[in-house]
Amino acid sequence: MKFGKLADISRVNFTLPPDHPATQQVLSNQTIASSPRVFVGSARWGERDLIGKIYPPKTPAKDYLAHYSQHFSTIELNSTHYQLPSVAQVTQWKDKAEDSFTFCPKLPQSISHQADFGQGIYATEQLTPALRAFNNQLGIPFMQLPPSFHPQQGKLLFDYLEHWPQDIPLAVEFRHPDWFNQPRIRDRAFELLEELNVSTVITDTAGRRDVVHMRLTTPRVMIRFVGNRLHHTDYLRIDTWVARVKEWLKQGVQEVYFIVHQPEEALCVDLSIYLVRRLNQECSLGLSAPQPLSIGQQQELF
Hints:
Elements: H1 21-28, E1 37-42, H2 64-68, E2 74-77, H3 79-82, H4 87-96, E3 102-105, H5 109-112, H6 123-133, E4 142-144, H7 154-162, E5 171-173, H8 183-195, E6 199-204, E7 220-226, H9 232-251, E8 255-261, H10 265-283, H11 295-299
Parallel strand pairs: 1-2, 1-8, 2-3, 4-5, 5-6, 6-7, 7-8
C-alpha cells in the first residue's frame, strides 16, 4: 500500500495517540461481549509468494482462497474496489472459503470515487444484493474515500450515508488531511458517523500519523496496519495495538478487523503469527494463527 509510505522511517514517532474522548462515550453504552469477534487477515490471497509459505507447492490459483482461509480469518477484499461483484461471484468465494471466514469488501470506485457516489448509475442498488449474499461471512464493508475528497464535499457523503441499507454494516476511511487537522470539522464528521451507526477505519501508516485518529463511532472497528518489511518497529507497534485492543474489549468493543499490510504478502504471514499470539496472550482469545509449511514441504518447491 503506497498511502503514507516513507523510504526512511527512522524519525517516525509510531506512538499511538490516546483515545478520542468520544470513543469512551461510545463504548460506555455497550454491553461487554463475552465472546468478542476479532479477525486477523491481510489484503491479498492471490500472491505467488504464499506458495511454499502457507500454500503447498504447485497449488493452482483456483485453490488459493481455500488455503488462505485456513490460515487467516478475514481479508480486505480489494477486487470489489475495481469491479462491482455479482451474487454469483460472491457465492463462488464463499464456497471456497472456510465457513468461519469473513470478507471485508472495499466499496467500488463507482461509488466511493464518484461525485454523486454512483447514484446516477444505481451502483449501490447493484452492490447491495452481492453484499447480502455474503450472509454471515460478511465482515465489515468499507468506503475508502480518495485523498482528494475534502470536507467541503462532506454534505454529499453524509447525504449518501443516510440512505445506506441499515442491515449492512459499513466503515469509512478518510484520507484528505483537512478531515483531521481542523478539530471542529473532524469532530463533527465523526459525530455524524456515530449518529448514522457507521464505523471508522483507522490506518496506521508511517507517513500519515494524522489518520491514526483513535475515534470509534460504533463498537466495531477496522484497523489497517501498514508494516515496513518486519522492521523491529513493526513488532513494537503490534504490541502497542494489542494493548489498545485489550482495553477496548474491556470497554465494550464487539468486533475488531485487523488487516496487516506489508510490501510482500509472505511477510504478512510472519507478522500475523506474532499478532495472533500476542492477542491470545493478552486478551485470552484463542485465535488460530497462520501455520507456515514445514521446511520439508518448502523444499519440495526446488
